[in-house]
Design brief:
Length: 263
């Protein structure tokens, strides 16, 4: 559904706060509220949402949910049942739930304020068929920490680390439930060891490369709670052709539009 100019202005006046933008996801009329100067979602969130194998009416919990981008894409592209997001930053939760109301997804998508390290809190959640997570990639003391707290929390392991994320998934998942994660290849050994530590078996891996001649800079991982030991390795996913244009697979993921979702 395409909104007219006046309808978009009404949406902005009713749902936006100072310093926020309203972004058209070009997906079944869905819009997302984001902050102009804080962390904004990128291709990694879109790839994660596309990678997750979501069957009809399954329950999904998205960890480190931020603006809610993964739940909104899943709501628009998959036959999922209830989709819950958990986010530690109150301002992001408020913003994401305004996006829920804006898109009339009450009852389908709900974003909760919570700390995934609080296992007793997680145990109050219903067990889920699927957990998705786009966690902070960088170790707490690696690189220069962004002075803007929201950006630092999104990029660095400040409020949670890799083990916290896997431990949370273990609590939330049903037996044989699936976790879908996107991370960085330099943390690959840590990811494999941590998943097995908590009896979440890595089942399927895809490396994501900027182009055919470049090393991977992201990795997509599917794990199964209490799954058997059998790992499949998928073909690499390439973002760009050698000439700099987007690959056919990326165009398909983005609905044949190179400008969608902020690529």
């Amino acid at each position: 559904m395409n909104q007219t100019g006046n309808e978009v202005l009404n949406l902005k006046s009713n749902f936006l706060r100072k310093g926020e933008t309203l972004d058209d996801l070009q997906l079944k009329g869905l819009h997302l509220i984001q902050k102009k100067d804080a962390f904004r979602f990128g291709v990694d969130a879109v790839l994660l949402a596309n990678f997750a194998n979501i069957k009809k009416n399954v329950s999904v919990i998205d960890l480190c949910s931020g603006s809610g981008i993964v739940p909104f894409i899943l709501a628009g592209k998959t036959p999922a049942g209830k989709i819950i997001g958990i986010e530690i930053q109150k301002e992001m939760v408020d913003m994401a739930n305004r996006s829920v109301k804006l898109n009339n997804l009450q009852g389908k998508v709900e974003i909760f304020h919570g700390d995934l390290r609080d296992l007793e809190y997680l145990k109050t959640m219903p067990e889920s068929d699927v957990v998705t997570v786009n966690p902070p990639y960088k170790l707490r003391n690696s690189g220069i920490i962004n002075s803007k707290n929201e950006n630092a929390i999104a990029r660095h392991e400040i409020c949670c680390d890799l083990e916290d994320v896997v431990k949370a998934a273990k609590v939330l998942l049903k037996d044989n439930g699936k976790i879908y994660m996107i991370h960085r290849p330099d943390r690959f050994a840590d990811i494999m060891c941590t998943m097995r530590k908590y009896k979440i078996e890595p089942k399927f891996i895809r490396m994501v490369c900027p182009s055919i001649y470049k090393a991977p800079n992201m990795v997509l991982i599917e794990g199964q709670n209490n799954g058997g030991r059998f790992l499949k390795w998928g073909a690499s996913l390439y973002i760009h052709e050698p000439d700099g244009s987007y690959t056919d697979e990326i165009d398909r993921i983005y609905g044949r539009s190179e400008e969608r979702y902020g690529v």
